[in-house]
Amino acid sequence: MPNKIILAINAGSSSVKVSVFTYTTPTADPQELAVIQVAGLTAPPATLKYDRGDQHIKNKELSDINGSESAYEYILNHLTSDDGLPELKHADDIEFACHRVVHGGDYDKPTRIDRDTLHHLEELSDLAPLHNAGALDIVKAVHAKCPKATNVAFFDNAFHQTLPLAARTYAIDQKVAKRNKLRKYGFHGLSYAFITRAVASHLQKPVEKLNIIALHLGSGASACCIQAGKSIDTTMGLTPLAGLPGATRSGDVDPSLIFHFTHDAGKPSRSSTTDMHITQAEDILNKKSGWKALTGTTDFGVISSKAGEGNEECQLAFDIFVDRISDFVGAYYVKLKGEVDALVFAGGIGEKGAALRKAVVEKAGCLGFGLDEEVNEKPGEQLVVDVGRQGFKHGVLVCQTDEQSEMARECAQEADGLRRKE
Ligand SMILES: Nc1ncnc2c1ncn2[C@@H]1O[C@H](COP(=O)(O)OP(=O)(O)O)[C@@H](O)[C@H]1O
Ligand SMILES: CC(=O)OP(=O)(O)O
Ligand SMILES: [Mg+2]
Prior knowledge:
- This protein is an alpha/beta fold.
- The protein has helices at residues 68-80, 115-123, 132-145, 165-168, 174-179, 189-203, 257-261, 280-287, 290-295, 300-308, 312-335, 347-352, 354-363, 373-377, 403-413, 415-418; strands at residues 4-11, 16-23, 31-39, 46-52, 55-62, 94-101, 111-112, 150-155, 212-217, 221-227, 230-234, 342-346, 384-386, 395-399.
- The chain folds into two domains: 4-155, Nucleotidyltransferase, domain 5 (2-Layer Sandwich), CATH 3.30.420.40; 189-251 and 289-399, Nucleotidyltransferase, domain 5.
- The longest helix is centred in the C-terminal third of the chain and has 24 residues, at 312-335.
- It binds adenosine-5'-diphosphate, acetylphosphate (UVW) and magnesium ion (MG).
- Adenosine-5'-diphosphate binds next to helix 10 and helix 12.
């Protein structure tokens, strides 16, 4: 039987990342052949990163890319014309296109995308204004350019189905809450599912016995309290705006603040489209806040090094992040009754931000976390690295999370059920 190609597509808030996998049987993990990323969609020029075998392209500037759909077209073209990737010479070689869909509402498992599902997901676009519309544009592009591929949606909120009622319920009128489905959903679930398995395997513990406080810190940032391998709380809410601040997101603010910020809070934003309706309030808090508003850059690597050089705005942004993360580490420590296997850092900032890890772990020192500072400076590229100090009560780990590989793994396992019936 010929190898089958799975394309795992991750439309983040500012980038499109695609990994190419082959798989043979549902039981063996898919094998990664190439990873391609077009970043900088919100701060042009877009740039290309490509890794396949010993071929590596980094920071190549691209022209004529103005959104996720054109980024996908570029990516498909790049992959099919790479002679070193003979497994994917033609769009028809793709059997499954997996899409990370941030807000899936009540969908709780990978779902083949047909016209009805697409319509339901479009209705949820307003609840993930930086994400869903971009992902669905790519679904349509795959439909047009790769008509033989089966499109499957993987939902970023699915991992948080296990949130206890008290954690998922807002203290508002429950009739309205139920009618309008207003509750905490939580996101970054593909990443937390990956982290849970990778850390359990690293610690040689069954997933069902794993208790961790996991931090996914990227352009969007969140924390998750994982007990017995299941999410029991997380910082994002009805939408990915709640909780920690991010590249362009405010994170938690007093909900009344926005009416003092602008009198036009409830009016439609100029970023509204026919597929997505958002207010000025949502536009300001999602797209014009966070690190960008505080420092002018969305790159936390730059913020971190400028803070180290004495830049006050960057120092404040850095300190705000440490302050908010520590709040949740404390809260989740109590939820886990102090029975914590490890504090886990992941996502671009969690994996690369040594200074941030140091500051967070120092604050949590009173709970029994400590860092091996030398390893923390250069943890290396292994899947999970122990950066905790010997002899301390709880571990500290860095995990190279991979949302695309999580989708590919689930896709291969469920392939028979997901395949289109001819
Ligand atoms: N050395 C570094 N220190 C801290 N943050 C970094 C470093 N290098 C990159 N980053 C940050 O990682 C973030 C991107 O993380 P990633 O998880 O890839 O984001 P996305 O949410 O777009 O998937 C950016 O804010 C980037 O600045
Ligand atoms: C849910 C979310 O915020 O995703 P990202 O960090 O990829 O923007
Ligand atoms: Mg991401």
